[in-house]
Amino acid sequence: MQTLDKVFHLQDAHTTVKRELIAALTTFVSLSYILFVNPNILHAAGIPSGAAFTVTAIATAIGCFIMGLVANYPIALAPTLGSAAFFAYNVCGNMHINWQTALAAVLVASILFVLITTLHLRELVVDAIPQDLKYAISAGIGLFIAFIGLQNGKLIVDSSSSLVTLGKFSSPAVWITLFGLVLTVILMAMNVPGSIFIGMIVTAIFGICIGQIPLPHTFISTPPSMGPTFGQAIFHLKDINTPQLFIVVLTFLLVTFFDTAGTLIGMTEQAGLVDENGKIPRIGRAFAADSTAMIEGAICGTAPLGTSVESSAGIAMGGRTGLTAIFIGIFFLISMIFSPLLTVIPTTVTAPALIIVGVLMASNLKKIDWEKFEIAFPAFLIVVGMPLTYSISDGLALGMIAYPITMIATKRYKEVSIMMYILFFIFIGFFLITNL
Fold first, then answer.
1. Where are the beta strands (DSSP E) in 228-315?
2. 135: left (phi over 0), alpha (psi -120 to 50) or beta
3. Alpha carbon separation from 128 to 77, 134, 148, 418 (Å, rounded)
């Protein structure tokens, strides 16, 4: 006990091992859906589901250990659905880049992430992007994720006349998705801990009961090998040799920037870690932890890791130190023996989780200054551009190009940072490369 207090400063944080354990269990239950949602998304990119399951568990566990030991924060690091969606549906899907090369792009972005963090440039770059556009990016990714969930659940389907239309209620897949969505919405509205995870489990049982989901042959087994993915990012670094892939690397870098920085700040404020001067202690270590976790995640074989918003559930239960993160990592390692459950968690079961996460991310819309058109227009392009173009990078580019134009038109060009002007030209080049 004294050793734990010496490492994690439990007494100084006014917490106990028991409280940290309960907080970790709460966060794990809230975040455990990632074990099934992330493999489903990565499978769409061509990565074997079994390997993706094991990689998700191991990469998350290591990320949590790094955050707990380096920064002493009660925060989990796990694959983010926004980055996973960009990886699978945009890079591998729309751009037709194989998943091995995409992992290499993630690794390059991760190395740049560490370099920028080490040089203390990360805060400068983040500060250069207007806050309203950061909110728009988060909300736009949320809408994109929700749209993917609606498609995976067959609630929205292709239409030759109107591009998309409502799915047929005669489809069993639609009923499974609707059952899970309604149940999860009710649980979320009632503030039930682990609502998304509970919703997925009950929905899977419902699918089994109506004969649409087969029962697994066993519930516990040896974890699938992550051999198919481990090290592929390193082996394919040589493939990062085209302007298109350099743009992919840049986009991974930017998306992770906005995602992790905002979430990390929000979590530390919730945990009461911000001092009276508004400074966040050990923020440099926290940035170093999540950027390092990105590298290990890429090497293992998953989309970028980032600060998990589900950490707020554990913080609400009293988690205050890195011991919470360590316990979360241990829970994820234990969870690897439950890989057979992947067969009863198809996309129709995980679809409600994507929709709900999309709703939560879209809450940032309220923070955008819609009264100023020069802000509202580029923010709007980002928000609607991501789901309508089915591309996070395209939506991001639209807003980044529009922002300097509207600010110059309103004679506010001095308020635009040099970095924003640089991004303006970068994204124009991006469109010229990818859409000619």
1. 305-307
2. alpha
3. 25, 10, 30, 8
Q: How many residues does the chain have?
A: 436
Which structural domain range is residue 376 located in? 368-436
Burial 69-96 (b: 16+ CB within 10 A, else e): bbbbbbbbbbbbbbbbbbbbbbbbbebe
The C-alpha atoms of residue 265 and residue 434 are separated, in whole angstroms, by 34
Domain membership of residue 145 (yes or no) is: yes
pLDDT tens, residue by residue, 326-343: 999 999 999 898 878 766
Based on the fold, state whether residues 325 and 206 are members of the same structural domain: yes
410 and 333 co-located in one domain: no
Amino acid at 137: I
Domain count, the chain: 2
Query: Residues 152, 173: one domain?
Result: yes
Average pLDDT over residues 374-390: 92
pLDDT over 70 (residue 56) = yes
Q: Is the dihedral of CA 132, 138, 144, 150 positive or negative?
A: negative
Last residue of one domain, picked from the residues 300, 334, 357: 357
DSSP class per residue in 192-247: -TTHHHHHHHHHHHHHHHTTSSPPPS-S--PPPP-TTTTTHHHHTGGG--SHHHHH
Q: Which of 119-128, 181-190, 388-397 tops mean pLDDT?
A: 181-190
Q: Domain ends where: 315, 331, 357?
A: 357
Which residue type, as a one-letter code, is found at position 141? I
Task: Give the whole-number percent of the chain exceeding pLDDT 70.
Answer: 92
What was the pLDDT predicted at 342?
A: 64
Q: Are residues 229 and 374 in the same domain?
A: no
Q: How far is CA 332 from CA 34, 65, 335, in A?
A: 10, 11, 5
CA gap 275, 172 in Å, rounded? 53
Distance CA 153, CA 169 (A): 12
pLDDT the model gives residue 116: 84
Does the model's pTM come out above 0.85? no
